[in-house]
Amino acid sequence: MNELKFTYRIRQALNQSTDSLERKTLDRLYEARQKALLRQRVAVGGLSLAGFGQFASETLPTYTRTLIAAFSLLIGVVFTYYWNNFEQAAENEEIDSALLSDDLPPAAFLDKGFQAWLDRSPQSSSQ
User: Fold this and answer.
1) CA of 42: how far to CAs of 33, 34, 35, 51, in Å?
2) Which of 53, 100, 116, 120 would be a feasible disulfide site paired with 47, CB 3.0-4.6 Å?
């Protein structure tokens, strides 16, 4: 509540001071305030990407902004698709490595009869 009273007093002091200003100065202050409010509306209404938003909203047509947004979304979808595929491949690699290391003795990888062992392995497990 103290801050509210303080701001109220400041506003009253500023309003009393305006009575002593010339009309020309008051008009310039009014115009500056209107310009600031207009810029604020544009910044809030448009994109606000560190100044690029105002540039884009003032210079680029609406359909170009829409195309840029759609293209960005498409890039995001494609990136996500490939990222998921890489993650799935990494998971499959871990699973395959775990299965191979558990089922096969290490000497089997060096043995010349490895293929024969693989051919024999399913038969022995089914019997």
Assistant:
1) 14, 12, 11, 11
2) 53
Q: Are 87 and 76 in contact (CB under 8 A)?
A: no
21 DSSP 8-state letter: S
Q: Distance between CA 67 and CA 115 in Å, rounded?
A: 56
Work out the burial of residue 80: count CB atoms within 10 Å of its CB; fewer than 13 is exposed, 13-18 middle, 19 or more buried. exposed
* Tens-digit pLDDT profile for residues 48-103: 555 666 666 667 777 887 888 899 999 999 999 999 998 888 887 876 776 666 66
Task: Indicate the burial class of 57 (C-beta count within 10 angstroms; 0-12, 13-18, 19 or more).
Answer: middle
Q: Which residues contact 57 (CB under 8 A, 6 or more apart)?
A: 42, 45, 46, 47, 65
